[in-house]
Hints:
The complex is a heterodimer.
Chain A lengths: L7 H4 L6 H21 L22 H32 L1 H16 L2 H15 L5 H28 L3 H9 L4 H36 E4 L2 E4 L3 H10 L3 H30 L16 H8 L2 H24 L12 H27 L5 H37 L2 H16 L6 H11 L3 H26 L3 H9 L4 H17 L5 H7 L1 E4 L2 E4 L3 H11 L2 H32 L4
Antiparallel strand pairs in A: 1-2, 3-4
Helix pairs in contact in A: 2-3, 3-4, 3-6, 3-8, 3-10, 4-6, 5-6, 5-22, 6-8, 8-9, 8-10, 8-15, 9-10, 10-11, 13-22, 14-17, 14-22, 15-17, 16-17, 17-19, 20-21, 21-22
Chain B lengths: L3 E13 L6 E13 L3 E5 L6 H8 L7 E6 L2 E2 L7 E4 L11 H11 L4 H14 L15 H13 L5 E5 L7 H16 L7 E6 L2 H7 L2 E6 L4 E7 L11 H15 L5 H4 L25 H13 L4 E3 H8 L3 H13 L3 E4 L2 E4 L1 H8 L2 H15 L1 H12 L4 E3 H9 L4 H17 L3 E4 L4 E4 L2 H12 L1
Helix pairs in contact in B: 2-3, 2-4, 3-4, 6-7, 9-11, 9-12, 12-13, 13-14, 14-16, 14-17, 15-16
Amino acid sequence: MQAFLPGSGSLRRVRYGLTDVAVILGALVLLAVIARFGSESFVAFTPPRNVPTISLDPHMLPGYAVRSTLRMFIALVASFAFTFVYGYAAAHNRYAERVLIPALDILQSVPVLGFLSITITGFIALFPGSLLGLEAAAIFAIFTSQVWNMTFSFYQSLRTLPQDLVEATAAYGLSPWERFVRLEVPAGTIGLVWNAMMSFGGGWFFLAASEAISVLNSNFTLPGIGSYVAVAVKAQNMPALGWAVLTMAVTILLVDQLFWRPLVAWSDKFRLEQSASAEPPQSWLYDLLRRSRVPHAFGRVTQPVGDVLSRGLAVLSRVRPRPAGRASSPLVDRAYDAVILLAVLGLIYYIVEQRILTGVGVGEIGHVALLGLVTLTRVVVLLIVATLVWTPIGVTIGLSPTLTRRAQPIALFLASFPANFIFPFATLAFIRLHLSINFGSILLMALGAQWYILFNTIAGASSVPTDLREMTDDIGLGGWQRWRRLIIPAIFSSWVTGGTWNASIVSEVVSWGSTTLVATGLGSYITEATTKGDWPRIWLGVSVMSLYVVGINRLFWRRLYRLAETRYHL
Amino acid sequence: MSEALITAEHVSKRFPLPEGKGEFTALEDVEVTVARGEVVALLGRSGSGKSTLLRIMAGLIPASDGSVRNGDAVLLGPNPDVGMVFQSFALLPWLTVIENVELGLEARGIGRTERMKRALRAIDLVGLDGFETAYPRELSGGMKQRVGFSRALVVEPKVLFLDEPFSALDVLTAENLRGEIDDLWNAKTFPAQAILLVTHNIEEAVFLADRVIVLGANPGRVRGEVAVDLPRPHNRTSPRFKELVDRLYEVMTNPSLDMARAWEPADAPAPAAAPRSPYARPLPHVRVGTISGLLELIVESGDDAQEVARLADRLALPVDDLLAILDAAVLLGFAVVSEGDVRTTEAGRDFANATIQHSKDIFRHQVLASAPIVATIAKTLTEKENRAMRGDFFLDLLDEYYPAEEARRQFQTAVEWGRYAELFEYDAEDDRLFGSDTLVAAQVAAQTTT
């Protein structure tokens, strides 16, 4: 027992050791790498004469990977900042909430690459003569792929704060700032980190797509691993593609080991349950940092500054107590609703009249809706086939604890590996085998989406309580009956996750060298409109796709979620 | 009386019912004063608004009418002179013990070294030294509540507010901690000048408090108060202690008893006037099996009459739970409670001894006779041609009389009782109630029309 008692340990002077040297060296290397490659964003860029070139020399790949990773992290930081502001406002202001939450729902449904198509020219115009515009556009695309999930997660945790903790912070006179730091952010941390990690994995896909994009009939390439792949495809350089895939895999693994694992291990202390977790997440780097004196020393140096800052913010954010009984008037509420309704109608009118109908006829809207139906069919076929293929595999893995422990990280890795790195290989196969891209694009979408299904199925199956499995064995429930009565209900809520639409924009148009395969569908429609810079069609395509996603979410997924929560909740 | 520290003056609290169906009164015209040097207990059953009153006096929620006076000032926000201990401990799981204790000091802008010094002293006071850097999840329930006390005492509040601080702990741990807090108070070096305790535990109130204020329910109001005229520490074995506990049991089991008359031998009270609508008579939230379990226990003891206080002891059941079961037994005509004793009726003895099928018949008969919500639902269903109705329909009706959460619980209890009595079935998925077969329907018709 004595060993666990604190006091002596925290006061003891420990000599700086090997771990500290390692930590200091690591930090220095990290800073050097960031400085070296970050500065390249400021090189001149005056299209069409002065465009950055991509070298296919494999030695350049690590540098490209670092630049791409930097983009990912800048987007991540921006996502966190946005999440805190937006989520806080939505949770604390009733009026803000009524606008912000439905808006979030819509924004979440707009395909990420649609955002990119619509905003990229604006970003380029924002920083004339520099790569920063393109950088900003790519970062924005990644940002939009991460931020909505994170914001929802934070908002949800703010809305479900335990009442007794809220009362305790009020009873002990914590100011809004102190409450934010002490209660609200910690309570949201686990959900936020988990969501950030999953969306970060998805972000690689959009990074690769946004580094090399054709807009307004010109090709924009931003030095990075994604554009490297694009150039290699054009040059039909198979070895270079192989190197790129390898580099990407190493990058994902490094980011996982050096960033996400330590973060997840650290965030475990923010669990709201009052009991210890059975298997706390582990990270060698987190253990190293905890053993090292360097972070402590750094903390001691910065502590006085931090104290003054947080004290200042606490005083500034303190609100004067207001007399009770400030009930909201229903009249104000109704007026507010009316204003919002008018604003939304105005926005819809603006988009339809000023952005879409200026260039396309009403008839085209019907045509695009049909294209949407084609793409929808692909998504549905993909979902059914991937489910039929991967559910039995996932369940087999999930029911065995040892297999789960080994397979879960692999599934997660495959899910975050950007499928568009594999597209060129598949495209080549389609060309050789004369497979129509109209079917092939389903396979391309599956390259990314199937791993999420596998990952979620494993998670669902591994959470089936042992006693229920023993019971089915005991009463001799086997085969299909066992699936129908136990397994399908048990994994149902894990399976219910959507989101394959984004992939359609990229997977319906693929190329190898000078050969380009175009599938009929809404995704290819948007891609072609973006390439030509056909604004009305970009707007139309993106709007229709968003409508499809919103509609299917409302009509289908939302109901499944409710069913999953109420009935199939283990 | 010595100097008043915190006073609730004509405090009322109303909560709006859902969909603008009026209001639910949780507290009505309550007056409570806490003076320097005393321990006051607010004793009441669930629904008496005792925790609401505590929160209003702590400035956590505003009163609908009336005001709280803190010293000379009228309270507008969280009361700075109060340290609060929560039933659920309310510790931040990501802060260590000492960081949790320092929380209130930090909010007051006290410097790091001073904070640490005072926190260590407070931790030492409740016997937690050695656990300063432990996280709450490493501690047992009793240890967690010690942190809760330490966090409240470190700010040296004028009044310590205790919101059922021992009820989340097991019996022995609660007893131990209760004794230690009492010792600290009696030692006259207590960091607070007064204590306000909310509890539904009668013994706890008499043991800790100098004054016990009894709150009644529907709406929450002060029924009266009892001075605990014993030397501190209050000796549990003294006859006067037992007498006070017994009397308070009697008051608590008889919601309509006039407190002033409780101290003289009184006849069974006149039942309260029946409310107008069947939906306005709440069901106690008790499972049928629990009622029959209690009745069997009384019958098997061979003694028809049992003292409620002893029964609570024997069952080691929270008093609030026991009282709810007794309420249900009395409502259904299975038992009568008078002068702190509970007696089984003939129906009650039959019910306890019957086979499953027969006990269902007895239960059905009693429910139709005396549980108006269930009887009305059964009647409505038999009158419908297809004998089916949406549960929402009845929930909406209940919403008119209860806050949303309570309406839902009333509905659940009604469904549980009705199902057991085989009066109706309920399909939770479609939220649909189905009336029972013709034989039962005839009984429903016969019993509910008379």
